[in-house]
Design goal:
Length: 200
């Protein structure tokens, strides 16, 4: 189980030419499918006379929602090669669009697969990839007498913690790395005075 995933925080663009065709690849940071639709609208307006606007994206590392589109190219020759490059780089929350301007020479199935894959790869290689921690959440309420116990447990782990003191104790929002959540929860659960609730 990995505690980190890769992503980008900026837009990157590269262009390659293959037998007269231009392949322009753009790599975007995204958070949801609405942003994907917005970027596709923008790129189709910007490159309105391009032959194809093929793309693939992968959302957050938990849901691993992914889509790929050949946009009129033969099935499996464009979107999937782009998607494979995103997966190979372990990229999440990323969209890659490859715009093709047809140059007059048909590339064939294998040629298209290589062209779209190489185009996406070139942009990924040019990008600055960020490693982002994957954190889960534990929400609990502790009486004043047990606050020291909670802090002692979480101190052993690399966590992000938010404390909100109340009249009867403290509410803790604990965000451990994904692989550490079960261990922390198990230790905290030994104290039966703690009240756990769901994270919003």
């Amino acid at each position: 189980m990995s505690d980190f995933f890769n992503t980008v925080s900026e837009i990157y663009q590269t262009e390659i030419k293959i037998q007269g065709s231009r392949f322009i690849a753009i790599l975007y940071p995204i958070q949801n499918e609405l942003e994907v639709k917005q970027q596709l609208v923008n790129i189709r307006k910007q490159h309105y006379n391009a032959t194809h606007h093929c793309y693939a994206f992968i959302l957050d590392s938990k849901s691993k929602t992914e889509r790929a589109s050949d946009d009129g190219e033969p099935s499996g020759t464009a979107g999937l090669p782009i998607l494979r490059q995103l997966k190979s780089a372990n990229l999440f929350n990323c969209l890659c669009i490859v715009v093709r301007y047809y140059g007059g020479t048909k590339l064939g199935t294998s040629g298209l697969i290589k062209a779209y894959g190489d185009s996406a790869l070139t942009t990924i290689q040019e990008s600055t990839i960020l490693s982002v921690p994957i954190r889960d959440c534990i929400n609990l309420n502790a009486p004043f007498s047990e606050i020291a116990f909670v802090k002692l447990v979480v101190k052993k782990y690399n966590v992000v913690i938010k404390e909100n003191y109340t009249d009867v104790g403290c509410n803790f929002i604990i965000r451990p790395l994904l692989s550490k959540k079960d261990n922390i929860f198990r230790e905290l659960s030994l104290n039966h005075t703690l009240i756990f609730s769901s994270c919003e």
